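Z., the sequence and structure:
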Amino acid sequence: MESKFDLWEIEREYFAQGIQPICGVDEAGRGPLAGPVCAAAVILPPELEIPGLNDSKKLTDKKRRALFEIIKSEAVAYGIAFASHEEIDEINILQATFLAMERAIAQLSVQPALALIDGNREKDFGLPIRTVVGGDARSANIAAASILAKVTRDDLMIELAKQYPAYGFDVHKGYGTKRHYEALRAYGASPVHRQTFLRKFYGAG
């Protein structure tokens, strides 16, 4: 059973050393064929208990949206930023993800003493960092960041679905589902597709 103690264990190690505030950083949308990648950085009050807080992928859309509002209202500071599909094509998805993370951290109104980054890839963000594999299920701040990034990106893809209704972005959020590939075969790529992600598809076609 998850508890606030599980999610605060990593942060607590640093609090004991006098290291705070701590921000969590996570992204949403590395895998889709279309749209931007979104990143969020969050600083929660130490030991704040938010019932139901967890990795965004383990939550329903309704639960994520409820937590989204709680996180924004309770956070000491947060930032949410994108790297566009053009930037993804230009500098690759990993570097674009780092760019979105850097932009999100830069939006924080409070300077963190440490950033906990979900994953295992390190990047110089101009402050001490620790990468945490599976961090969105192990750190309260990363879990909160995962929810902010996921909901924000989902909402953007829902808006893009209104501009490009043939592709079903509101349903699959740009991921490579059967319906999405069928739309690509029928209509070709939209202006918001990641061209570098479609090379194998076109090659196979």
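The radius of gyration is 17 Å. The beta strands are 22-28, 37-43, 77-83, 114-118, 129-132.

Let me know what you think.
H.
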